[in-house]
Amino acid sequence: MRKKKLLTGAAVxxxxxxxxxxxxxxxxxxxxxxxxxxxxxxxxTLKDVQAHLKAFEEIADYNGGHxxxxxxGYDVSVRYVxxxxxxxxxxxxxQKFRYPYWRERxxxxxxxxxPSKKSYKRGEDFxxxxxxxxxxxxxxxxxxxxxxxxxDGTSGCDRRxxxxxxxxxxxxxxxxxxxxxxxAARARxxxxxxxxxxxxxxxxxxxxxxxxxPSRIPVVGPTHELGAALAKAAKRKGGxxxxxxxxxxxxxxxxxxxxxxxxxxxxxxxxxxxxHLDSVKDGPGINDNATGSAALLAIAGKIGKLRRGDxxxxxxxxWWGAEEEGLRGSTHYVxxxxxxxxxxxxxxxxxxxxxxxxxxxxVYDGDHSTRAGTRAPAGxxxxxxxxxxxxxxxRLPTTESSLNGRSDYGPFAEHGxxxxxxxxxxxxxxxAAEAKAFGGRAGKAYxxxxxxxxxxxxxxxxxxxxxxxxxxxxxxxxLARTTVAVNGGxxxxxxxxxxxxxxxxxxxxxx
Length: 511
What we know:
Layout: H1 40-43, H2 46-61, H3 72-87, E1 93-114, E2 118-119, E3 126-128, E4 135-143, E5 170-174, H4 180-189, E6 194-198, E7 219-222, H5 224-234, E8 241-261, E9 266-276, H6 286-302, E10 313-320, H7 328-336, H8 339-343, E11 345-351, E12 362-364, H9 380-393, E13 399-401, H10 410-414, E14 419-423, H11 432-438, H12 462-481, H13 484-487, E15 504-505, E16 508-509
Parallel strand pairs: 4-5, 5-6, 6-7, 9-10, 9-11, 11-14, 12-13
Antiparallel strand pairs: 1-2, 1-8, 3-7, 4-8, 8-10, 12-14, 15-16
Helix pairs in contact: 2-3, 2-6, 9-12
């Protein structure tokens, strides 16, 4: 055997077993040392999440191109989640419920017919309110207590606003003071053939609103600019005539939630993680919200590897149905609980759209520091801080996402349960400051495929999603160990702040 020449000064690697004890690196643990404490952020990988995203995309592709509640794609998604949970050692429960649904069968019409003719564009100039009734009305417009610029007004909230209202007319009202539901009901009671409720000053675009219960008259929502112009025209000599046409259908449908608890942990101090499982009918919903659903599945699949001391509190995973129909699944779940079970929920974490291609890393504004949206129950600020501290430690930027009630944390907050979570943006437009912090393109939508057929796996920003799931896993593990910062370590009934007023439900505005 030829001898190998040793180079002077070169390091020679030998197995530790052949080294004297004195030269074994001190970084090696002693033989009887406990193994390193596992962390969810390390256990859960992007590969885990991607596998679920691919499955959800395939389910949509083979079931009409979507996973909307009430369809086969949603039912198969439920079975997929249940199967993955059982494989991970859970005993999931399927909670069925019925909910009202509404949709447009054909495009609406809003057009001026007198004093001159002009048609307005759906989506750009106006939108149909969810649960609007059907009808094709051409009639004179009556501006109902529309306030002058800079003034307040009830504009259809009070019966006296309709004094002298001519039956068969179209009621034109400005948004504000009371719910859209009340304005539409007041208009119909006064004999209006249709209701047009336009946006407030400073609010962009048409109103994306709901009258909550099926209306018997058409209800549409123009932009503030168009609505103010119509109000001005209606007050001129000769008046204004509009055509309002809507073609809608409504009824009852069935859907289901999937709920699964860890075996370990206190049942009287539950950490509840939720994400909606359904998509809209216009696409497979991979960013919205297979990303949230997949993140929960990946975490559930690895949480059993944590030590007993890391699961002092029970962790509950929930996949909500019919979120896109107005938070139906999460609302049903919260309202179906008795007082004792509801009080056992320490907090709710919600995850909705975690990989928007042009998004931001939005942490829910639990301490209401932005003064936007509504004030969350006490303890929510502590959850926000946990997420922000984690990402700050990794030198990853965050921004605050206002609690506007558009996702499934809403029903929990309404019952005084602390809430937190993340999103990366939907149909809003990215600012220059956000583009500087997060990259991407200013002036463009956070998710260019929001509620569209192109919301597929290619639409997901995977590196963004990866770091976000790390943060979710980290905060989940911390809260599973202790909720002291949120509720002192035990769930107590929290009195809502007197100023708390839920303004939204689901994807539609209420007022």
